[in-house]
Amino acid sequence: MNASAPRQTGRGTARSSARVRHPWLIALGTLVLGVLVVVLLWDWNWFKGPIERRVSAQTGREFRIDGDLDVDLGSTSTITAGGLRLANAAWAREPQMARVDRLRFDLRLWPLLRGELQIPRVALVRPVLHLQRNPKGLRNWDFGKPGGGELPAFRNIHIAQGQFGFYDPARKTDIRLTLDSQPRGKGNGEPPISLEGGGQWSGNTFTLSGTAESPLELRNARRPYRIDLRAAAGATRARARGTLLDPLRLRDFDLELALRGKNLADLYPLIGVVTPDTPPFSLDGRLTRDITAGRTTWHYDGFSGKVGDSDLRGDAAVTTGGPRPLLKADLQSRRLDLDDLAGFLGGAPQANESTNPELAARAAEQAARARVLPDKPYELERLRAMDADVRLRAHRINAPSLPLDDMEAHLLLDDGLLRLAPLNFGVAGGDIRATIRMDARRTPIHTRADASVRGLALAQLLPTPAAAQDAIGRIGGSLALTGNGNSVARMLASADGEVAIGMGSGRISNLVMELAGLDVQESLKFLLTKDRRVPIRCAWGDFAVAGGMMTARSLAFDTTDTILIGEGRISLRDETLDLKLRPRPKDRSLFVFRAPLLVGGSFRDPSFRPDLARVGLRAALALALANIAPPAALLATFEPGPGKDSDCGGRYAR
Questions:
Q1: Hey, what long-range contacts does 312-319 have (CB within 8 A, 24 or more apart)?
Q2: Which of 563, 611, 618, 556 is nearest to 585 (CA)?
Q3: Which of 102, 203, 411, 542 could potentially form a cystine with 390 if both were Cys, beta carbons 3.0 to 4.6 Å apart?
Q4: How far apart are CA 140 and CA 197, in angstroms?
């Protein structure tokens, strides 16, 4: 027994010394076992309280996790939380600014030990975000205690049944959208987001739909973020497709923007740009933006399209940040339908042309009126709402009833003061150059118009090809008018100033002149033989304008055959004509019933007729003389030709 005892003691000593030599193995095993126990049995909801308090302190808003918090540990751990709620600002409409029914994200542990937060994947189920700005300019996304720091490096995000809302009552804007991640496409790219919704924009109902790249692409401020969105507000449609650069800061845009609608004036409540009423339009161009010295400029460059029956192209820019938005544009049209500019004057295009239902109804009403001058008032608040610097050049004008060639206009609008300087038309081979000043800072609008007429070809102004045949001459003149009124009709109804027009030497059909004087003998001769041309010595008309009434101070048309001397008035107020032209032939002729020619009627339905009372008197006298002595009847129709040449001393008769 004694021999065996030492051996047992030796083996026990060896085991004891092993435990003494490797205590760290026992500690490590115990730690691993403890961690396993903790992982298997630990309730991760214990961390909800500390997380809620930390987020609440950082945001100044109550933050809650109403569901369970769970962690699946690994080199890339998965964290799941349910029922996340972030309270809204006290003044906001919605009680909660954000909520998520279920949040699941992956977290890489080894980069975390180096202080780098990497989240490869985030999944959100029914997330809701409400943003709001109050009338004082406060924003509910401005937190009392911002956390600062950089966002973690996300790699993948998936949204299921998301909702987004933006409310700005001061701007009458209320937007609500639904968002969903689409299936991942080819190339393992991040799945794009589809969105759909609408609401109110500046008080106007609209809808929005389209797609955008994954929100993860927003993290790279240097990489363009692609979108393809369609919006509709009433009859106005827009499609924006292209890229945003650093969209979280709304830094730069590069979009192809297509616009179409029934009236350009409908854009005013949507984007604050004032335009006149127009027929339907369709435009497509490039939208970009830049910010300089606190001012933002939106550029719509290289656009082209149609407005009514006119083509239109050019560049436009709207700058905000000043006292009023500023519109600058350089526009051109290869073929401009004059009817499409009717809205500038308060009128409407003819109903048989490209138009919209509202303008068609206005055109029908306008056609049924006895008056011609547009009486639709200008909207003063729109003239005062923005500034503008717009140039328009039309290379060809379509106006069947007018001999217009081209047009150049430069519109300047500054704090309610509108100027067209110049407003030039190519007319009948000549031109009309005008400047117009409308002061909408006053009520009613005070308007001044100055115009000069130069080199208009007589042949192109005559109403029929027969009358225009062989007609030669150039017409010039001037106009200076001032008036008060909020429509074209009211401005002219109160107009003061003067109008003068004249012509130098030329020629015209003798038949036209003889018919004007009812010279039966001469007219028959030219009808049965060959019409000949009569030289025009000069012609002029000089009118004084007061209170909307044009009174002829001097009116004459002098040819080598006949001189017409005129008098009378034209009422811009009543839109009526009351002129009398007295023919004075310069030759002797039988069978003449010469009498004053009366120009009357209205602007819409003018009349040109001889004074039938005078013609009847001559006819009655001829009949009476015929009963006494038939040859004597010729005396009543004989014209001795007392007309004399004028001195042609007028300004325009040279």
A1: 312/283, 318/271, 318/272, 318/273, 319/295
A2: 563
A3: 411
A4: 22
